[in-house]
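Question: does this match?
>
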Amino acid sequence: MNKEAIIEKINDFLIDEFEVDGDDIQSDANLKITLGLDSLDYVDLVVSIESNFGVKLVEADFVGIDTFQDFYDLIENKLKSKA
């Protein structure tokens, strides 16, 4: 799966799961603020990523994840290390 496909898949389920406007999802936008994430939402996010991409995320993975681009890079790196 290439980077563009990863980003598209992530954005699609973020729009569906978190009912965010697709126009608000920008690579340099703050992930937590844009999605309005609280601690329970992070659990939903992890479950969604694991079911959509088949990768395991742990709390430490989110250290330093501020923007959507950081999040895209995290998922891309998890997929590369899985392959």
About this structure: The two ends are 11 Å apart (CA to CA).
